[in-house]
Specification:
20 strands, alpha+beta, 22% helix, 9-stranded mixed beta sheet, 8-stranded mixed beta sheet
Length: 361
């Protein structure tokens, strides 16, 4: 007879891995990963920065609560961020500051020209977010997998989810790696979360994957030492320095797509470079790399953590958009408390889990 797991987590990206780590030894867990290595899609293609304002005020509590965990593990390093705008963006700057006025996030108005060499003259508005940091995505993910496995979780690769049915309180889960049995299914399948839901007999929640483009540039002059992350307040680009004087640049695109192995489009690379050249007077010497990843959002752009309204034993851990990595420690603790039916960890006890519940749809 196939053994019965307490929990089968579908997806071993950041969401599934961090949740498995947070569950620890409190349940017998199987992590079922469709690819031949965990973290292949969104997790492995992250822009790799941690920003308390990224995702907006409803995401900020999860990001802020995650900070101490990431710092303690040595996964964050100083970067800083400057949100820039032109004169026409004054209202957007004011709204941005107002959105975080009652939070613990420290934001300061500055003259961006004093901090960004070669900044073109029309970029006159700036807000500094000093807490923004580099995040070692690979290390965060690897530690989550290691902690989960040390606590007894079984990681199964090449286990694409095919179907599931529930009888007498037990799910029978069919995958390309065989059949698994579990009392609870966790849907942490990222861009494929609605597909998994349908195959398990649950109602899809209209999750939408979007393609996001990244390019690595070599510029003349090269990115100066100490350059912070630079983000357009109107959401048209961001870029950040990387070792060797390189830059990572995104046009901040969100192109709706089906779940897939995302690849960059030449037009999006061209748009990114055009927008970059409108910000600074540096010459783009070469595009050294280009890639794309998927960011999957619920209709209200908030993540989904909680049991399905209609299907017993089916738990959602999905819709993390572009902030799934920076919120992973706190989100996993919050989701684990809902999943196991226990009091939340003190680090997340003040966060209102109801705002992320699937019942809102």
């Amino acid at each position: 007879m196939t053994p019965v797991y307490d929990i089968a987590i579908v997806g071993a990206g950041m969401a599934g891995a961090s949740l498995a780590a947070a569950i620890g030894s409190r349940a017998r867990v199987a992590i079922l990963e469709a690819e031949d290595a965990p973290g292949y899609h969104a997790t492995g293609r992250s822009a790799a920065f941690w920003s308390e304002t990224y995702g907006g005020p409803d995401i900020q509590p999860l990001t802020t609560a995650s900070g101490p965990f990431l710092e303690a593990d040595g996964h964050l390093s100083p970067l800083g961020s400057i949100h820039v705008g032109r004169a026409a963006d004054e209202a957007a700057i004011d709204a941005f500051l107002a959105a975080f006025a009652d939070s613990d996030v420290v934001l300061d108005r500055i003259d961006p020209a004093l901090h960004i060499p070669g900044l073109r003259a029309d970029w006159t508005l700036g807000v500094r977010e000093q807490s923004c940091a580099y995040i070692d995505v690979a290390a965060v993910h690897a530690k989550s997998i290691a902690v989960a496995r040390a606590a007894g979780a079984d990681l199964v690769i090449d286990a694409a989810f095919l179907a599931a049915r529930r009888s007498d309180g037990i799910w029978t889960v069919e995958t390309r790696a065989g059949t698994f049995r579990a009392r609870t299914i966790v849907n942490a399948a990222g861009a494929w979360a609605d597909t998994v839901a349908v195959r398990a007999g649950a109602r899809p929640l209209r999750l939408q994957p979007y393609r996001r483009t990244m390019v690595q540039l070599r510029t003349d002059p090269g990115a100066p030492e100490g350059l912070p992350h630079i983000a357009d307040i109107a959401g048209r680009f961001y870029f950040k320095p990387e070792p060797g004087g390189r830059l990572w640049l995104s046009p901040h695109d969100e192109t709706p797509t089906d779940p897939c192995d995302a690849a960059p489009e030449e037009i999006d690379v061209a748009i990114a470079i055009d927008r970059f050249e409108q910000v600074v007077d540096w010459r783009v010497a070469a595009v050294e790399r280009r890639w794309a990843g998927l960011r999957t959002f619920a209709p209200d752009r908030l993540p989904i953590y909680g049991f399905d309204r209609d299907v017993p034993g089916f738990f959602w851990c999905a819709g993390q958009g572009g902030f799934g990595i920076q919120t992973a420690p706190a989100a996993a603790l919050l989701a684990a408390s809902l999943l196991l039916g226990v009091s939340p960890d003190p680090a997340v006890a003040a966060i209102d889990a109801a705002r992320y519940a699937p019942e809102r749809f």
